[in-house]
Design brief:
73% of the residues lie in helices and 4% in strands. By secondary structure, it is mostly helical.
Length: 423
Amino acid sequence: MSKVADSVRANSADLQTAGTSLAAVGAGLTAASVGMGKAAMDWESAFAGVKKTVDDSAEGYAQLEGELRNLATTLPASHQEIAAVAEAAGQLGVKRDDIVGFTSTMVDLGETTNLTADEAATAIAQISNVMGTMDREGSEGVERFGATLVELGNNGASTESEILEMAQRIAGAAKTVGASESDVLALSNTLASMGVRAEQGGGVATRVILKMSAAVDEGGESLESFAQVAGTSAEEFAAKFRSSPMEALDLVAQGIGRVNTEGGNVSATLSDLGVKGTEETQVMLALASAGDLLSESLRMGEEAWKSNVLGTLNVLEAARAVGVDVFINISTDKAANPSCVLGYSKRLTERLTAHFASLDENVYVSVRFGNVLGSRGSVLTAFTAQIEQGGPVTVTHPDVERFFMLIPEACQLVLQASAIGTD
């Protein structure tokens, strides 16, 4: 402190000259400190709401607070908005260990879909409670659910809110017959894309699924009717329904479509299946008219998960089993604030890699690639095709910037990561 005082005395003239400027700066700093103080008070108030709905110890609250505040450094949301979603998560029965992951996914959905974070949280928590999503998979199950929802919304004629509203009404029947969350979203996307209202579509889909289930359980004439429309034997249809109920429903819908296309008696066919009444007929005809949309939706929801997440997990387990010294996971820049299944699934592979890094002393690291010129899936291929056809070259925004690396540079990045990467 004495050195500071001596310095102040030696430079008193300069300090007096700068007095006016310092006063102005001081006023600004005072205003800033007031703002910071208010922000701290706002956060304390917001986190107090989280404490009301989440049961934890003092130490646990401190950890949770730090984790939630850290989300604000990676998510496009304020501390208060994040705390509000976490508070809602507690009210909806989300377990303490899943609060942060659940909150992160809901904030992501609030930014990348036509849902608000609160709307997404309420609907997805309810579906999870029905289907046991978080009981089985924790917050990663919800993250997978969100990724599938975004992918279907991006690639279909329906919005995420329409898909989710339909899914809430189908989830109960789907759980009863052993369908997955991805199956529910696929069917919901198909019906919503065909303009079917959630109230109507959810009720009819539930009744038809349960009728199919009863037919499979009881056998006899009812099972024969479903099998005949699906173009299979009764045994094949029963096996298909037990292994994948939504694929069995897809076979039935396509069979109804064939009857309609070939000029057959659709009403009689539906009646044989126990589908009666104007409402049920309208919904099943809409599903039959969807072509391969349900098939594509079912495939879309599972493909990235199987190839990216399960594939990476298998390789990680094999690498650890044989004692691989250095494991490099090739990821993508889409894993940063993901808004598609590729991004979400790749982010999960990064988390899996980080988890394996904690299990032993060997090195497990992830490397994110951007656009690699000449690689499969590079945007350059699309741009080249557009130019060859005379344009235009489509971009997401007039001021967009694209950054590329060459294949040798990408290879060098992997080698550098293996040499200098640490867990």
